[in-house]
Write the structure tokens for this entry.
Amino acid sequence: MNKTFYITTPIYYPSGKFHIGSAYTTCLCDSVTRYKQLQGYDTRFLTGTDEHGQKIEEAAKANNKSPQDHVDYIAGLAKDLWNQLAIRNDDFIRTTEKRHEAVVEDIFEKLLANDDIYLGEYTGNYCVSCESYFTPTQLVDGDKCPDCGLTTKLLKEETYFLRLSKYADKLLDFIDKNPDFIVPETRKNEVVSFVKSGLQDLSVSRTAFSWGVKVRSNPKHVVYVWIDALSNYITALGYDSADDSLYQKYWVNGDEVIHVVGKDILRFHAIYWPIMLMALGVPIKFRLFAHGWYLMKDGKMSKSKGNVIYPEQLVSRYGLDAFRYYIVRDIPYGNDGVFTPEDYIKRINTDLVNDYGNLVSRTISMVHKYFGGHVENKKHEHPYIEFETDLVNVANETINNYKSLMDEFKLSEALRELSVLVKRTNKLIDDTFPWDLAKDPALKDVLESVMFHLLEAIRLITILYLPFLLNTCAKAFDYQGVEENFRDFYALEFGLKKTYDVLKNPPHLFPRLDEEKEVEEIRKLMLMKKEDKPEIKPILPEITIDDFGKVDIRAGKIIEARNHKDATKLLVLKIDTGDKVRNIVSGIAEYYQPENLVGKTVAVIANLKPVKLRGELSEGMILAGENHKKELVVVFLDNSLNPGSKIS
Ligand code: ME8
């Protein structure tokens, strides 16, 4: 039976659109999963959304939505984004789902029954954004949150507490006995010293708001969002439900369980979560990999600073593979990385266009030029054999290094190793001068051997790129005519494939990017404020053609336009709609000068019930849309449409 591998991302807060930071964690987990699958593991990959809590309640309010509508909308965007990034998660858990909520209620009651949770009272400074209390010594500048810098509120509330203190020694013992429980090591050390400095019991319920899982035995309390959220890793597997087969398979009897988390949420995962599991009597099967952050040159990505970059923007301009490659390549293991447009373009141009893409193109074109597209492995002695042997050695070393780095989640480092092999393969061309060999018919076999070595090296490189370059690898294999059985990890052996028939003149794998121009393009995308980004409003429920037929839209010619005498936002228009000249009031005064509208043809809803707007009769409505700057733009029609023409 295959070994199992269960990997999870954190569940994301649906407070707004996801930027490249969230995409980083998810792409990293997806690449690790694909790698494990290639290694023959039976994998399960979970992601989802963390939908309860005051922060979400407030975000919904700010958007004039109910919390449920708000989270439905953002969870939909998240699923779309993960589809667009070709994320192959097996499940998507939402904490507002019944399958999750019911089990969280149970978990809370179990902990209460065991006296691991007790009722008490809490007074302290609370940060709504971080959903956490802070002690006076933790606060900065008087009352500011030490994590996010926002002003905290002094709250006093009845609350349930989880007995963290009771488990501190057991936790330290567990960490000691499982040296790989938290990686990297530096993060583990942070956790250990935090626990050693003394754990306070944790407040695990709230009464100040209601958007959460109610405590079953005392429903004026809702369960603290982190207790609710952390449970997702087992509720999604069916823990404590009628069918817990996934829980048994991937957790209780599973071989590897990995929670990938950002460094900011390590404490929750390394302290609260194992203690919850100990208290529940659930085995601690997981390991934690804490990664760093994507920062911007001026610090944290922030919508208000206008320095955010969204994955969709980069994918639609530069393609999925380039984005996915960059995002895991540019953050070294466990550290932070800085996103800059220059690095983004350089990384793609150097690694993918120049080194890998070019190697494939050059090799294929030489194989055609010198051998009509067909080469065979002709083992024999020749003067360049040492270059070839060296290439084979480097390839074997790369395969080994790559695997051990990938096993430790060092994806960026594994890709760096791979780049070395790509460069070394390109070097075989520089070392052997194929164009000179081609001039001497006596050296034909030598040339063929060089070509063969290039093709085999490219095949191995492409196999190792499989977890990262999702579309490109299949293309590269097709270009080289690599059969299915030579395309996976079991075929990672130099010389396994004996003959090649390559395609003629296939297109380049990656188009070269004009560095200066593209850096400018990305800068423009980054400078767009959040509100500058077109937001697509959800499509309304379906109607029939008969419903549409009830709306009578006519072409109308504007024959007069003036500002409304009392309302600065309104224009008063006289519009000829064929049947008569109508008085129509329109809220476009901020965007149009009246004199510029006269003579224009517009779309008028002619059978709208007349109304008075600020004292002026309005006998219809003209059509307009909103652009990305939230400005109204009138729908102008072709002037050849006569007044009264029916629009349908
Ligand atoms: O913390 N670079 O959700 P979240 C890299 N709901 N990673 C980043 C990042 C950046 N710029 N910005 C955010 C939560 N992240 C909780 C998790 S799990 C039971 C509950 C990472 O949406 C961040 O480090 O605020 C975290 O790992 C993840 O995105 C989700 O953050």
Remarks:
- Residues 341-371 form the longest helix (31 residues).
- The two ends are 63 Å apart (CA to CA).
- The domain at 545-647 is CATH 2.40.50.140 (OB fold (Dihydrolipoamide Acetyltransferase, E2P)).
- The chain has a mean pLDDT of 93.
